[in-house]
Write a structure and sequence with these properties.
alpha/beta, 7-stranded mixed beta sheet, 6-stranded mixed beta sheet
Length: 359
């Protein structure tokens, strides 16, 4: 292994600083653009190299002291070494850059990033792992466990649940999801305050007095139920039958929730009793909130073929969002792109894209 001094030029998606050595990119974690650092190359490829930080020789004014004793060893957080305003600036730029580089999009109507009110103690659940008496998270770039007594980005109730788990005389090897509340165990966002800001953003983006909302990947109806006042009928579709059962528990006459194939919206609409509503799918508003892998090729094709009047795309992965928008832009105009910081101190980014069919 060799050591060298580097100037960090940028911070890549995922959180690592980017330097250059003879034209080759060198990725160095826990660094900030503008810093001069000493680093040790640990992995070298033809196109890039990876290094470990040895010393910060000239630090950024945005550098701060991490609040977590496990930072740098735990694989969860990437940005505790920089102030929050700089984290937000980096994430906003990473969304824009992904849309430009991967999506080949120009003149992107980016809105300011929506911050989290709490930069620490915001997570309402975590999953810890237990093996051979060690309880915690995976180490960075490793499958070995780091023993964790508390997680500073998690809420007090979650850390109390962790303390109770650790206090048990015997903990069986496995995975344990610790929650701040004992609600239905279906997918929900881990930052309640930003989840509410996300919901409010989507409510603001949707025009009133519409006939039909189709909410793909609807889960327990988080968005659909917030939009009831704006639509005559709401159809929610999800593969998760447990989430659909939760959505149905307090559903109104306006709501129809279907456990089924997200790829076949026509079948779902045909199977739904719309009470005489004759609106076509093309006139509907559609919301998609896919997993990090983004929309499948079949869903992208179905959206292009159906071309709903309004499409709202909620993404937790700017790279797959950019890939999908590249294909969708042939039928849609992008009205706005809004990043949200659902996961402060980490490299994760939430994004909402608001699209309408091109005339």
């Amino acid at each position: 292994m060799r050591s060298l001094d580097l100037k960090i030029e940028d911070v890549a998606f995922g959180g690592k600083g980017v330097a250059r050595e003879q034209g080759k990119a060198v990725f160095v974690p826990y660094t900030i653009e503008g810093e001069i650092v000493s680093a040790e190359i640990v992995r070298e490829k033809k196109q890039f190299a990876e290094a470990e930080l040895v010393e910060v020789k000239q630090s950024s004014p945005d550098r701060v002291e991490p609040q977590c004793p496990y930072f740098g060893r735990c694989g969860g957080c990437a940005y505790q070494h920089m102030n929050y305003e700089h984290q937000l600036a980096i994430k906003w730029r990473q969304v824009r850059d992904a849309l430009q580089r991967i999506g080949k999009l120009k003149n992107i109507p980016m809105r300011p990033i929506i911050p989290s009110p709490d930069q620490y103690a915001y997570r309402n659940r975590i999953t810890v792992h237990a093996q051979d008496g060690v309880i915690g998270f995976f180490r960075r770039d490793s499958h070995s466990l780091l023993n964790i007594e508390q997680c500073p980005i998690s809420r007090g109730e979650v850390n109390r649940a962790l303390a109770e788990l650790r206090a048990q005389k015997y903990v069986r090897d496995g995975h344990y999801t610790l929650r701040a509340s004992s609600g239905a165990h279906v997918f929900s966002q881990t930052n309640d305050a930003v989840a509410n800001a996300l919901r409010d953003l989507i409510v603001d983006l949707v025009s009133p007095n519409q006939e039909l909302l189709i909410d793909r990947y609807c889960g327990a109806g988080f968005f659909a139920k917030a939009l009831l006042d704006k639509f005559e009928r709401v159809i929610g579709i999800d593969w998760d039958r447990f989430a659909i059962e939760t959505a149905k528990q307090n559903a109104t006459a306006k709501e129809i929730y279907i456990a089924g194939d997200i790829e076949d919206v026509k079948a779902a609409v045909s199977a739904a009793d719309l009470g005489g509503l004759r609106v076509g799918i093309r006139a509907a508003t559609t919301i998609v909130d896919p997993p990090a892998t983004g929309l499948t090729a079949n869903v992208r094709k179905a959206i292009v073929d159906l071309a709903p009047q309004t499409l709202i795309y909620v993404s937790c992965n700017p790279a797959t969002l950019a890939r999908d928008l590249k294909e969708l832009q042939n039928k849609f105009t992008i009205n706005s792109v809004t990043p949200l910081d659902m996961f402060p101190q980490t490299a994760e980014i939430e994004v909402v894209a608001h699209l309408q069919t091109s005339n």
